[in-house]
Predict the 3D structure of the following.
Amino acid sequence: MQMMSSERPACGWLHKLLVLLVKLHFAFAEPLQPLNGTGCTAKGPASYILVFTGHWSPQAFPKQYPLFRPPAQWSKLIAASHNRHFRLWEEGSSASPGVQSFAEVGVTVELMKAAKEARKKRTVGVMYRTAGIPNGIGHSSTEMLMVPRNPLLSLMVKMIPSPDWFVGVNSLNLCDGNRWKQEVTVDLQPYDAGTDSGFTFSSPNFPTSPPENITKITSQMPNHPANSFYYPRLKELPPIASIKITRQRRTPDRQTSISNHILPNSINPQRFSATPLDCEVSLWSSWGLCLGPCSRGGVRHRTRYILLRPANAGSPCPELEEQDECVPHNCIKKRQ
Ligand SMILES: [Ca+2]
């Protein structure tokens, strides 16, 4: 008992010292603790060039490829740097009013309004834009300045023409612990905003009621032959677009919100992939009249027509007309 009581103050003193040391450690470590929850402890900002490349070619996407009124093209690109408390868009979630109007008609007013509100709450850093691309294949680019408190990048580009389809990335982290990534390349797939039920690129406006969640469009889903991206022979769609984000040594003198003139030397070579498109034909018509002399029997015909011409070595179209032997109608009468 004696020993214990004499040791207790010593233990208490040691304990207090330990607690103090631990507290001091955390107090000094605190500035390094990321406040944005994204783990970015990089010391300063990083300058990047973002290049968007469209790969939407008639070779890769032959089905219903929009050639005119309007031809295949890309809207302006909208990007935001932000922290984990902001979402521009998210697969499996419903589209915000801003995402809906951008995905359906390419209007950015609502998106920009929401981003401005988010900037006030300091969840969004900077919004960036590029001009649109008047073609399915092409580049657009912008400079970006990323800061440690907003290391995530989200962006959207609308496919034109389309009901509510877009490509994009959601919360791509350009920071890796205490350093900024040097180069990031991402292949992009089309997404459906869930607000318009059109099946094809040039479907008329057809609101989805109630709205559905944002979903990825694949070669199998939506599982409907009329869908513009339905390629049952493909396991997955070829990338319809890609982004390449490259860190720049210098810090931009001023932030340019729109610039389409900066293209780094190392742009991906044009990817060429030809997607086979099988011929599609209608159902057979009903049989025509049985015609012919009663002595030799008659012949009747039925026809079908081409719904979709084959492309890129897809299956050729089958016979469009078929004939069959039959007993002419007037001969049946004669026998009776
Ligand atoms: Ca849709």
